[in-house]
Amino acid sequence: MAEIRLEGITRTFDKKVRAVDNVALTIADQEFMVLLGPSGCGKTTLMRMIAGLEYPDGGRVVIGGRDVTDLPPRKRQIAMVFQSYAVFPHLTVFENIAFGLRMQGTNKAEVKRRVDKAADLVQLGPFLERYSAQLSGGQRQRVAVARAIVMEPAVLLMDEPLSNLDALLRLNFRAELKRLVADLKTTTIYVTHDQVEALSLGDRIAVMRDGRVVQCDTPMVVYDRPATAFVGSFIGSPPMNFLRGRLEGTNGRRRVAIGDQAFEAPDALGGTSGTEIQVGIRAENIEAMTEPAPGALAARADVIEPLGSNLLITAVVGNTSGASGQAQQRVKIQTRIDFPVQADQPIWLRPEPGKLRWFDAETGREVVTQ
Q: What are the tens digits of pLDDT across the range 306-328?
């Protein structure tokens, strides 16, 4: 068993920069957990504390029921793949993969068995006698992964291992990595700032901001029901749209006014008339129309981007008629590639009611409406 428990982990640098702030997180045995967030949010520092490369100022790291907070990396049964390949140029692929085993004094027959097995898992069997200069970037990254898994760790840590690959290699290797981790059945923690990687790879995603975990759930829950406006704006391509509005009416006749327009709001939203609120909606959950319709907001197409399989429209909502005192708000819509629209053309936008998300305008937290 290699369940990981982080209990109130805190790390402060220079006595004032709190890189990790009281993080409590449990990663189940054999789970693939992704730590996701922007640069500087504390995800790599948190991983380094799990690995034993950084020492926490407070809290505990528990792996497999054993408190490892004070143990050095070599006694934690972990292996780590870094952002840099760190492949030794003077060694062959076989020797690179076998390096850790030889440092442990493993006998030759066992070294060969485990290296061959690891090489087969990452599809490097035919390249064992090659040197790093004879490998592509994707193959070098496979060497780094094989060097980690050959140690048969209880926990596999990966710190942005695909960031040095070009787009096509990253796409291909991402699928290979997901298959590999499923085959290994090893508890895995993966650090990235790429939300596409996070959504496609993880069993769960822990979204971090300013040293804290702001949401931890399955990829589709994080995508579809972000706990905060920050999560919604960070995950998704394009990110979630947010329209700032104002509550009007009373229970039974609640509306959200956006500029000089309004649409229905659920009674469970709470709040008094005049309360500021943010309405979140994904680009693919907005129906674009060329004619007015009930429940649709008037808008003006601003930028049209054909993306092959669909059309991405950036539209202006609010001050579409040129009236003063009405703030413009921009919203992105994904629609069919043959939707008849030109820049500066009026269009109407109808959000799918069940996909609207409601956030407090001040705190950015989702308002529970169930």
A: 999 999 999 999 754 444 445 78
* Token code pair at residue 92: 């062959």
Collapse the DSSP code of 280 into the 3-class scheme (helix H, G, I; strand E, B; otherwise coil) and give the result: strand
What pTM value is reported for the model? 0.88
What is the rounded distance in angstroms from the CA atom of residue 78 to the CA atom of residue 156? Answer: 6
Which string of DSSP letters, residue by residue, matches 155-186?
Answer: EEEEESTTTTS-HHHHHHHHHHHHHHHHHHT-
Of 127, 131, 96, 101, nearest to 113 (Cα)? 101
Q: In what helix (H) or strand (E) does residue 144 lie, and over which residues does it extend?
A: helix 137-149
> Within 13 Å, how many C-alpha atoms sit on residue 286's CB side?
29
Question: Is residue 315 exposed (0-12), middle (13-18) or buried (19+ Cβ within 10 Å)?
Answer: buried
Token pair 């790879």: residue: 201
Tell me the two tokens of residue 282.
């994904």
Domains and CATH numbers, the chain: 4-234 (3.40.50.300), 241-360 (2.40.50.140)
The pLDDT tens digits for 143-201 are 988 999 898 888 999 998 887 777 777 888 888 888 888 888 899 999 999 999 999 99
Q: Say which residue the tokens 């500021």 belong to.
A: 276
Question: What one-letter code names the amino acid at 251?
Answer: N
β-pair partners for 279? 243, 358
